[in-house]
Amino acid sequence: MPSFANKLLAWYDKHGRKNLPWQTPIHPYRVWLSEIMLQQTQVDTVIPYFTRFVERFPTLKQLAAAEQDEVLHLWTGLGYYARARNLHKCAQIVMEQYNGELPADIEALQSLPGIGRSTAAAITSIAFEQATAILDGNVKRVLARQHTVEGWPGKPAVLNKLWQHAETHMPANRCRDYTQAIMDLGATLCVRSRPQCDSCPIKASCKAHAAGNPQNYPGKKPKKTLPVKQVQMLMVRNPQGDILLEQRPPTGIWGGLWSLPEVHVDEQPTAKIAGVTGEVSAHTSWEEVRHTFSHYHLDITPVLIDIHKPIPGIMESNKQLWYNLKQPPELGLAAPVKKLLERLGSLTQDN
């Protein structure tokens, strides 16, 4: 009787995805970049970002030599920006410590910024054909159903069981294809809702399918009501139509990205604009917009503030700049800020 891996590989040979941008050609740099981008992000979303990224930085050496703003600019909209900062830092470490070549050793990979156990295993399996099992979201779902593993995978005991199953099923040969196959199965057939069990190559051994309740696996994360925070974002516009931006601290929410100045929802919007007392010609609040993070909602009230003359000292600061809406500089922008700037740009064109 064919093994779990053999059934999966036979299915992959007929139905698997083999023409994704990072598969042609297979190269450690491209594999690493794609795996970082694919963390908590779907393939269709990643493809255009990956394509633009490798066009700008075809090699790890070029990525390491880039300015962080360049990297964050290309990442804008992809979310989870710590991934981009870690990617850039990782490239620099690889240049310094590994002569510009990603190590093929899984433990060495895990010591690098942004590379955890499953990502390291994916790199060694796909790029170097090693028998290292992965456990991303798709694989967790496949294995939880296959073995009816109870509970939410965020709990250590549940996660450990899934790792044991992942390693048991990992074959010694065709490691690259197997890794891609189990990811593809979870992404195309063994999906979260309405799994296509009739087409599944491993349904005969799937305990959840036999019980008729695959939708019960894996266990769901306990629901928690997200808190709501409120802020005013100040769109300070000078007479030339440029918008004042500030660079956020290197760590934390939107770390290193350029954003609009913020004040508390109860503060006077013009209070933060130092040096322009009496220079504000008008300020208008726009409708509130909501941006949701993994652990809270952020309700943003955008406030457009027109000033008579530029704020003194802005251009001398490397933490502040005037953003030209007509010829935008290549900066990493927080997603809601990017949308607000685009809206301001369209208003400028209309006038």
Explain this structure.
This protein has 351 residues and is an alpha+beta fold. It folds into 2 domains: 4-216, Endonuclease III, domain 1 (Orthogonal Bundle); 228-350, Nucleoside Triphosphate Pyrophosphohydrolase, CATH 3.90.79.10. Helix content is 40%, strand content 13%. It is built from 13 helices and 8 strands. The strands form 2 sheets. Strands 1, 4, 5, 6 and 7 form a 5-stranded mixed beta sheet that branches. Strands 3-2-8 form a 3-stranded antiparallel beta sheet, with no helix packed on it. The longest helix is centred in the N-terminal third of the chain and has 16 residues, at 82-97. It is globular, with a radius of gyration of 24 Å.
